[in-house]
Structures are given as structure tokens and as C-alpha cells.
């Protein structure tokens, strides 16, 4: 099929590369000349394991083409994915100006019957607005579809190639058939394509992310309570996660959720719920709990040092909002760094992927170390912020020998509290009794 993806951000690139991988002719269009020039040379604007190989392979095979010429990319397409950014407005609602600009181009330039798919996470009602923007100029029939994306950063290719399910909102049989054909290679294992009406598809994306964010905030509050009552949240997590109604995933307490989706989508859904007169009090509480959680690591460090952080050197292991990404958007590390610096501490960080992005944001306000041990060298405490695999099994003897004081504050519960105490560390983690 001839596919056009407009927007070469995170979602657009993954969709384009994966649809090319299954033999479609894909044009990825973006107005950003620099980005497109880079992509033509297989230089990706984001870090995602495996994506570079996909782009390179499919570009070399001629199935994947990058261009800034949006009108010509639209002209001959059978399916057009709109995957441009929807940054939050000041009030938290998604800004649709880029989406509607693409719609306007589709109306003006589409030259054959086409399915127009909203792929960016957009509020309920957006497909209708897109259709309204296309209609006045349209010279060919078009069919709307909403096809939300459930990709996780760091596992995006797998998520796309082997999805749990594909959700597709459609209004016409034409759109349904096209989308079924397009996704057939990805659901051969029997996973479902769930067809539904468009508002339900749009709502599904928000409901999924809001539910997951709710689980995390819930577990973070349970963890904080565990500390007060002397319980161990890891055991509580296993205890409840083995109930098939609850399930084991997304029950890990930590320094608060971050990233480009959860914070933005929860905010947007709170906003929509208020606007539509069905306010979601649950989600407001989820947001509040997450804001509080982002301060927990600082509180723990402060407690260890009796409130005296001036002149202390603190090592951070991890900066990205989660492992396997260089994404710093809404990362709890940024909140922690600001608090530490304000308290007069110096910060030296290590991250396998996100140091470049952190420096772009906050410059040399902190030090950047080549290795995790170099970051810990001479530090009064080491703080685990991100759950990178390489931090899971450190050489504790080496760590202890390079630290000035054997203090470890573990925001991801990577280590065993009993073992850490027996090795002579002062160890704090999330929701495991006093530790
Ligand atoms: C999320 C959704 O999972 C994905 O379906 C959607 O398309 C986009 O948003 P992503 O933001 O890439 O994906 O990351 P995810 O792995 O879901 O983690 C989100 C945040 O929650 C991270 O900050 C992570 O550290 C945190 N988290 C996750 C926890 O604190 N505990 C958990 O148990 C799981």
C-alpha cells in the first residue's frame, strides 16, 4: 500500500519504519528540513533501540522515503497517518494547530480516495475537527480513522511489530478494510484488531494511559505507607499482582512517572473531564500524588544527612525518565537536581543515553561522568534515579571504595536492603520498611 506519515517525531518514525518493514511504500514527511536531511543519512533525532537499523534497511530498499514536500507526499497516498506533535497548551489541553494544518493540506492536495488516520494522541472529538478542516477543499472522497498508538519508549519496535491489540476507530467499511489489510501482518499471532467508533478509539488511548498512571501513583502512596507501618512494598506488590484481576505489571513504585505521555495525557483528560462536566477526581489525585513523589528522593537524602546538604557531593545514577531512552521530558531527575542545587549540594551524574539531552537543557549546572563509578568518586551519597540494567548488579565493593561515605538512596528498589546493610551501606529505598 502507498502510505504517507506526516510528522517524523517519535510515533511517526516508528510507524513509518515498521510499515515499510512489512513491504509498504512509505513516505515520511516533515516540515523540518534539518530533521529530514539527517534522516536521509540515517541520522535519527531520537534514540530507540533497533530503529536506526529499520530506517537504514528500508531506506536502502527504497520502501522508506523522507521528504519536506508535504503536498506531494499527500497527493498519491492511500492511507495518511497524522503523527505531528500535540504540545500541551498553558491550560493542559492538547494544542491541535499542527494536526489541523496537516488536515488543511490533505484537503487541498489529496488526489485519490484516502483514509486519514489520527495517530498522535488527540482529545476526543479531534477526528471530527480534522474532517471539518479537510472537507471544504476536498476533491476526492476521504475516510476518517482514529488509530491510537500504545508504544513504550525503549520497546517501541516490539510494541508495534507484536502488539497486544490494535485499536482502530472507523466510520466506513472502506476505512475498515484498508486498516485491516494494513495491520494483518502484525496480528498473525491471533492478537485482535479491535474496531470501534471513532470517539471510543480516541477515548481508549487516554483511558489506558490514565489507568496505568493511576496504578503507579497508587503504588507510590502504598509504598510511602509501607514505610510508616514497617511493611515491604515489594512483597505487597507480589501479593496483589498475583491476583489475576490485578496482574503484575505497572505496580513498581519509584520516583514518580515522567515521560512525554503520562503527565500530558493525564492532564489533558482531567481538563476534558472538567470541560464536559464529568470531572475525574481520581485523576486529579493521581497527578497530585505524582507531584509529591517527585520530591521523595530529595526528602530521603535530606533525612540521611540531617538536613545538611550544603557542600555535599551527590552522585546520580540515571537521568532519563526511565531506562532505554534518552528522553528527559518530565524526568524526576530534573526535580531532584533542582532541589539538590538549591540546597547547596553539587551533583555529578551518569546516564548511558541521556547526558547529552540533560546538558542541552541545564548545561553545566551539574557534572557529567563517563562511567557510573566515576560519578560516585568522592561522593557523599549515590542516588539511583533510573532503572538502567547496567545499574542492577554493580560491584558493590568498588562502589563503596570510591564513595566518600557509603550512602545509597535507591529510587528504583534495585538492591536488596539486607545485603546492602550487611555490606556496610546506609541504604534507603522506596517503601521497604525503614530502608
Ligand atoms: C507510556 C505507555 O506505556 C504507552 O503505552 C504510551 O503509548 C505512552 O506512554 P512511556 O512513556 O514510553 O509509555 O513509558 P512507560 O514504560 O509506560 O513508563 C512511564 C513512566 O512510568 C516512567 O517514568 C516509568 O519509570 C514509570 N513507571 C512505570 C513506574 O514508576 N512504575 C511502573 O511500574 C511502571
Automatic annotation (TrEMBL):
<feature type="binding site">
    <location>
        <position position="30"/>
    </location>
    <ligand>
        <name>NAD(+)</name>
    </ligand>
</feature>
<dbReference type="GO" id="GO:0051287">
    <property type="term" value="F:NAD binding"/>
</dbReference>
<dbReference type="Pfam" id="PF03721">
    <property type="entry name" value="UDPG_MGDP_dh_N"/>
</dbReference>
<dbReference type="InterPro" id="IPR036291">
    <property type="entry name" value="NAD(P)-bd_dom_sf"/>
</dbReference>
<feature type="binding site">
    <location>
        <position position="153"/>
    </location>
    <ligand>
        <name>NAD(+)</name>
    </ligand>
</feature>
<dbReference type="InterPro" id="IPR028357">
    <property type="entry name" value="UDPglc_DH_bac"/>
</dbReference>
<feature type="binding site">
    <location>
        <position position="35"/>
    </location>
    <ligand>
        <name>NAD(+)</name>
    </ligand>
</feature>
<feature type="domain" description="UDP-glucose/GDP-mannose dehydrogenase C-terminal">
    <location>
        <begin position="315"/>
        <end position="417"/>
    </location>
</feature>
<dbReference type="InterPro" id="IPR001732">
    <property type="entry name" value="UDP-Glc/GDP-Man_DH_N"/>
</dbReference>
<comment type="function">
    <text>Catalyzes the conversion of UDP-glucose into UDP-glucuronate, one of the precursors of teichuronic acid.</text>
</comment>
<comment type="similarity">
    <text>Belongs to the UDP-glucose/GDP-mannose dehydrogenase family.</text>
</comment>
<comment type="pathway">
    <text>Nucleotide-sugar biosynthesis; UDP-alpha-D-glucuronate biosynthesis; UDP-alpha-D-glucuronate from UDP-alpha-D-glucose: step 1/1.</text>
</comment>
<keyword id="KW-0520">NAD</keyword>
<feature type="binding site">
    <location>
        <position position="322"/>
    </location>
    <ligand>
        <name>substrate</name>
    </ligand>
</feature>
<feature type="binding site">
    <location>
        <position position="205"/>
    </location>
    <ligand>
        <name>substrate</name>
    </ligand>
</feature>
<dbReference type="InterPro" id="IPR014027">
    <property type="entry name" value="UDP-Glc/GDP-Man_DH_C"/>
</dbReference>
<feature type="binding site">
    <location>
        <begin position="150"/>
        <end position="153"/>
    </location>
    <ligand>
        <name>substrate</name>
    </ligand>
</feature>
<feature type="binding site">
    <location>
        <position position="258"/>
    </location>
    <ligand>
        <name>substrate</name>
    </ligand>
</feature>
<feature type="binding site">
    <location>
        <position position="86"/>
    </location>
    <ligand>
        <name>NAD(+)</name>
    </ligand>
</feature>
<dbReference type="Pfam" id="PF03720">
    <property type="entry name" value="UDPG_MGDP_dh_C"/>
</dbReference>
<feature type="binding site">
    <location>
        <position position="264"/>
    </location>
    <ligand>
        <name>NAD(+)</name>
    </ligand>
</feature>
<feature type="binding site">
    <location>
        <begin position="250"/>
        <end position="254"/>
    </location>
    <ligand>
        <name>substrate</name>
    </ligand>
</feature>
<feature type="binding site">
    <location>
        <position position="329"/>
    </location>
    <ligand>
        <name>NAD(+)</name>
    </ligand>
</feature>
<protein>
    <recommendedName>
        <fullName>UDP-glucose 6-dehydrogenase</fullName>
        <ecNumber>1.1.1.22</ecNumber>
    </recommendedName>
</protein>
<feature type="active site" description="Nucleophile">
    <location>
        <position position="261"/>
    </location>
</feature>
<dbReference type="InterPro" id="IPR017476">
    <property type="entry name" value="UDP-Glc/GDP-Man"/>
</dbReference>
<feature type="binding site">
    <location>
        <position position="121"/>
    </location>
    <ligand>
        <name>NAD(+)</name>
    </ligand>
</feature>
<dbReference type="GO" id="GO:0000271">
    <property type="term" value="P:polysaccharide biosynthetic process"/>
</dbReference>
<dbReference type="GO" id="GO:0003979">
    <property type="term" value="F:UDP-glucose 6-dehydrogenase activity"/>
</dbReference>
<dbReference type="InterPro" id="IPR008927">
    <property type="entry name" value="6-PGluconate_DH-like_C_sf"/>
</dbReference>
<dbReference type="Pfam" id="PF00984">
    <property type="entry name" value="UDPG_MGDP_dh"/>
</dbReference>
<dbReference type="InterPro" id="IPR036220">
    <property type="entry name" value="UDP-Glc/GDP-Man_DH_C_sf"/>
</dbReference>
<keyword id="KW-0560">Oxidoreductase</keyword>
<dbReference type="InterPro" id="IPR014026">
    <property type="entry name" value="UDP-Glc/GDP-Man_DH_dimer"/>
</dbReference>
